[in-house]
Structures are given as C-alpha cells and as structure tokens.
C-alpha cells in the first residue's frame, strides 16, 4: 500500500473508533520508528490517539476503561488513551505524552489538542525525563546489544533515548521526536559517519535484520548511560499543581 492509501485507511479506522466507542478523537499521531525517522521497509504504523467521552461517562459509578486497543496486525498498531488518563500522566510529567504531542506525523488534530500542547511546559520534569530515557536505553542495551550479531534497530532504540536525555541536559526542555535532529544537536562529530552507515543499513533491512556489533558505538552508549544516570540521581525534583489541567478538562466537557 502507498502512504496515501495507508493514511486513508487510518482515517477510516479512526472514524470506526468514534462511531463504535462513542468518543471524539482529539488527535492521532505516529509514535514509533516512522515518527523517529528511521523506519525499516516493513515497519508497521504505530498510530496513537487521544479521545474524550461525553461528560456523563466521567460521572458513572462503574468506570469505563481508559484505553482503546483497536487494531494490532503486521501493518497497523492502533490504540488510544482517554484524555483524562493523558492529563493524569501529564501531571506526572510522563514522557510519552510529550512525545505524542511532538510527533512530526499527525493524522488528525483539533483546536483542543493545540491547547493541550500549550500546557506541556508547565508539567515538564527534567529529572523524570532523564530517568525515563536512561531506563529505556539501559534496558534495550542490556537485552539486545551484547552479542556479536545484533538487531540493527536496537542501536537506535538505545541511541535515541540517550541523545534525548542529553538534549534535556543541554536545553532543559522536552526533546524532539526526529532522530536526525537529535543526532545533529547532540552526537559527537566523530561518531556521525559510523551512525550514517548504520542508518543506511537499517533502512534496507527488515525489522529483525542483524548487523555486526559496533564496538565504538557500544563504548559511547555505555559511557553515556553512566553520565545520564549520574545527572538524574543528583537533579532535584519538581512539583506541579492540578489547576491548569482541571481547567482544561472541565472546558472539554462543557
């Protein structure tokens, strides 16, 4: 299927969600490797959406599940969060909310979604962001990158969060989604040619494609993980108020 056919299919799926679940979708974006800029030829489409129900649904004694898992197959991975869940996670500075709001691939948007994005700076925690990206990098590195032959995409699943953490340290704001932007801003020049070669291989390989382990990149990642964890440990936490999020939520339901 062409990209245009995929986009048409995704929009049809979103309409199905609205009709069958009785919700209104505020935004739908790409959240996986396609939004990061290093998709494999057979990468699926990771569609994530935020939705709101009518106000009576939030006043029920029997609570409705706050996640809709709509489709998961070889082409489409579609699921979404209730806006109440998203706002509760934003209060905790959950990095996933920031990433969805920063995705360069937007399938649907709304004025309410644009208003939500204006609240993001009020709830961004550098400490929580650093821990999130450190944990993502460390778990992928420990699990996938110690053998002689490794899955190419796993290098990017470690490098991207490490560069995102360095962005937070340098700029004190949420990182961008595009991997190329993070590389340009945060990766040492001496490593960029090595990464370019790996990226070209990754784009030609299937999702499970293997490459030889690259010791120079492994050393860089090991050193970076120690550095990020050290900064996160010593960084003070921050506190937020619910006021702006409550006002936003009430306005949605009015």
Written description of the protein model:
The protein has 254 residues and is an alpha+beta fold. The chain has two domains: 3-124 and 239-253, Beta Polymerase, domain 2 (2-Layer Sandwich); 126-234. It has eleven helices and seven strands. The chain has helices at residues 3-21, 33-36, 83-91, 95-102, 111-119, 126-144, 152-171, 179-186, 192-204, 215-234, 243-253, and strands at residues 24-30, 45-52, 67-72, 76-82, 106-108, 149-151, 210-212. The strands form two sheets. A five-stranded mixed β-sheet has the order 3-4-2-1-5, sandwiched between helices. A two-stranded antiparallel sheet has the order 6-7. The chain is globular. The termini are far apart.
Short description:
55% of the residues lie in helices and 15% in strands. By secondary structure, the chain is of the alpha+beta class. Strand 3 (67-72) and strand 4 form a beta hairpin.
Topology:
Elements: H1 3-21, E1 24-30, H2 33-36, E2 45-52, E3 67-72, E4 76-82, H3 83-91, H4 95-102, E5 106-108, H5 111-119, H6 126-144, E6 149-151, H7 152-171, H8 179-186, H9 192-204, E7 210-212, H10 215-234, H11 243-253
Parallel strand pairs: 2-4
Antiparallel strand pairs: 1-2, 1-5, 3-4, 6-7
Helix pairs in contact: 5-11, 6-7, 6-10, 7-8, 7-10
Q: Kindly state the number of beta strands.
A: 7
- CATH topology annotation of the largest domain: Beta Polymerase, domain 2
> Span from first to last CA?
41 Å
Q: Give the neighbour order of strands across the main sheet.
A: 3-4-2-1-5
User: Total helix count?
Assistant: 11
Percent helix, as a range, is 55-70%
Task: Assign the CATH superfamily of the largest domain.
Answer: Beta Polymerase, domain 2
Shape, per Cα inertia axes = globular
CA radius of gyration is: 19 Å
- Quickly give the CATH architecture of the largest domain: 2-Layer Sandwich
| Main sheet overview | 5 strands, mixed
Q: Return the CATH class of the largest domain.
A: Alpha Beta
- Strand percentage, roughly? 5-15%
Tally the structural domains: 2
Overall pLDDT confidence? 94
Give the low-pLDDT segments. none
Structural class: alpha+beta
Q: Can you write the helix and strand succession as a string?
A: HEHEEEHHEHHEHHHEHH
């Amino acid at each position: 299927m062409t990209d245009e056919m995929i986009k048409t299919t995704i929009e049809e799926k979103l309409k199905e969600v609205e009709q069958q679940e009785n919700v209104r979708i505020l935004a739908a974006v790409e959240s996986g490797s396609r939004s990061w800029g290093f998709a494999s030829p057979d990468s699926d489409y990771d569609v994530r959406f935020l939705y709101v129900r009518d106000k009576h649904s939030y006043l029920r004694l029997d609570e409705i599940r706050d996640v809709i898992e709509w489709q998961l197959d070889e082409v489409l991975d579609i699921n979404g969060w209730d806006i109440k869940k998203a706002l509760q996670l934003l209060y905790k500075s959950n990095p996933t909310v920031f990433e969805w709001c920063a995705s360069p691939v937007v399938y649907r948007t709304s004025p309410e979604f644009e208003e939500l994005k204006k609240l993001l700076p009020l709830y961004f925690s550098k400490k929580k962001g650093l821990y999130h990206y450190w944990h993502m990098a460390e778990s992928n590195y420990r699990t996938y990158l110690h053998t002689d032959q490794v899955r190419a995409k796993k290098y990017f699943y470690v490098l991207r969060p490490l560069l995102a953490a360095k962005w937070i340290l340098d700029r004190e704001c949420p990182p961008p989604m595009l991997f190329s932007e993070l590389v340009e801003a945060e990766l040492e020049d001496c490593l960029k040619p090595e990464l370019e070669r790996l990226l070209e291989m990754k784009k030609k390989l299937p999702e499970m494609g293997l490459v030889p382990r690259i010791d120079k990149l492994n050393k860089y990642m090991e050193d970076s993980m120690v550095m990020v964890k050290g900064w996160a440990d010593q960084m003070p936490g921050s506190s937020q108020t619910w006021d702006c999020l409550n006002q936003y939520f009430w306005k949605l339901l009015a």
